[in-house]
Amino acid sequence: MKNDIILAGVGGQGILSIATIIGSAAVKADLFVKQAEVHGMSQRGGDVQSHLRLSNREIASDLIPFGKADMIIAVEPMESLRYLPMLKPGGWLISNINPFINIPNYPPIETVIAEIEKFDCHIALDADKIATELGSPRSANMVILGAASPFIDIPYSELQDAIRAVFGRKGEEVVNMNLAALEKGREFTELNK
Amino acid sequence: MQKLILLGDEAIAQGAIDAGISGIYAYPGTPSTEITEYVHASKEARKKNIKASWAANEKTAMEQALGMSYAGKRTMVCMKHVGLNVAADPFMNSAVTGANGGLIVVAADDPSMHSSQNEQDSRFYGKFAMIPILEPSNQQEAYDMVHYGFELSEKFRLPVMMRITTRLAHSRSGVTRVPSREQNEISLPSNLRQFVLLPAIARKQYKDLLKQQNPLATESEMSGNNIYLDNSDHKMGIIACGIAYNYLMENYEDRHVPYPVLKLTQYPLPRKQIEKMASECNEILVLEDGMPVVEEMLKGFLAQGIKIKGRLDGSIPRDGELNPNIVAVALGLSDSRGKNIPEIVVGRPPSLCRGCSHYDSYTALNEALEAYSKGRVFSDIGCYTLGALAPLEAINSCVDMGASIPMAKGAADAGLVPAIAVIGDSTFTHSGMTGLLDAIIENTPITVVILDNSTTGMTGGQPSAAYGRIPAICKGLGVAEEHIRILKPLKKYHAENVAIFKEEIEYQGISVIIPTRECIQTLGKRVKAGFKAKSIE
Ligand SMILES: Cc1ncc(C[n+]2csc(CCOP(=O)(O)OP(=O)(O)O)c2C)c(N)n1
Ligand code: SF4
Question: Do B14 and B38 meet the contact criterion of CB atoms below 8 Å apart?
Fold first, then answer.
């Protein structure tokens, strides 16, 4: 078994929390894990990505080779496209469709979504809207994780446990919000994949 | 023993705690920062009374570590690659004094310049100083090699360099700990002149260092860190340094490379193993992240003898970090690159946070400078460097930490008046103060803007040694009190602030303006933590 995952977004959007949750669930499931993160300069509102690798045997490289990623999980639509050279033929593109616009030349959002929809294997959802409807706009990243969860070879219950472990010290309410967000994202994919 | 999922940086920190350090010294710098942050946050380190200090700069960090080594205790000093330029004087000389307690210098390189001004390779410094270098290929090795590095340092009584690159520093993986070792007792060098580098003593010590070189090469051959994998296809041999080994292995599903491989993680170069490869193989491919350090050593100037492939002959791009695909192409395997990036995707450069105090400082400065021709603002390194980009386009230089003030002085000496220097608070105490003194002595007509946001913002908000001290430092150095102007960079004070900038820019002598408002990121964290006092630890 191997899942090579590119996580993409903009600095500050919480892709590292997604990585932490998948990573700790994978360790619990006795998988090997490597996770290359981006720290430093680009965290100031620039584009950020993380390479997350899970496998049942030892992993060599911290970086996923180009064209070998099984999926791209993006919390921002334009950022989902930036890493297409990493995706393997037939790999899944799971992306938020709500743009994060902090540059003057952001392309028209319809053209971005049209690019995403060119892929047979894509899941595109408005995670911010779903999270806001749940009363927890900050959980949009967990909606995205939920939407990606059917493609990740870790039992769903392990992801739920990891959310409990990671958000535990922030209190039960935060945990439940994030679990609900995860569930909504998963439902979306089950209905649309 | 306990298994942890750690960043490469954190594995080094945990290794240092477990190997019995008594202190760690550092100045923040990507990708090295998380080593010292980890020790700072570690309950275990606190229980063991391990000193974890942010120094004013890398030079003072290196010197504090050298002092701790002098006293017989194990210590680590951490910096990014360019930090080693700042620490180069004590670093080079520490090879001649030698160490007493174990001393590891961690230099974190940043090939591809993810967060840096250049991609210099610290292995040149290690070789220059003639000390051993360790270059782990993964997080577990990083942890283990810290233990080995301290033993090596104490065995040869020399500082040891540990060289890592961004991808190891900032990648997480499983690390198994070993039982921890007690700290050393205090014990001074048996020869109390060991650290006195008067020429007569230094000459003797330098000869000792030269004499150590062969035993160090033998150690590289024997330690088990450099592994020769004897494979059957001798068309080519491969030397894979540090993390490059992983990229090599990634290209073989079954992890079996058909060619002989030397996995290289300890320097000086293991002569015997390299000679074996040269005698057995038709050519050698060198895989190294960073500059062609090993390749140049093997090639020599006249490039006679066996063919060496790497960054110099174009088998691998001359600049930028390695990845599995670059290695695949060098091996003659196919590149697996997926679809191209659609044309509509545009760059997203980093930018100042919304509400950042630097933004208000720059809009005021820009307006005050409207009357003058462009190109007068020398700046420095920090979040405020982002003021170079649109829409602010407020600064015209960023070279090395502290360069803004002396460059403004030099330009003013050349007749560019007014000239402005813009520098952050942490950068100012890192290496801005001495440059300011130069300008004060000649009363050069420059305006120095010290952006005081109470923190070292760019690297994630470490405490700033400048906190609460800047006006007093400027006064103490000799800036006239009436030309030290403190202002609050907020939109509502914009007009007042522009007036202050204009006044001081017109003044024909040295003046300092200190826009003072906390970084909103650290402010946010403090609010969350219930308004902890802000101060240097
Ligand atoms: C010699 C050297 N050491 C460390 C760094 C890494 N570094 C870049 S900016 C910076 C912090 C600057 O802090 P400050 O001057 O307070 O500005 P701020 O980021 O808070 O605006 C550091 C540590 C570097 N580039 N060069
Ligand atoms: S981290 Fe602080 S100093 Fe840096 S851009 Fe953000 S608010 Fe400004």
Answer: yes
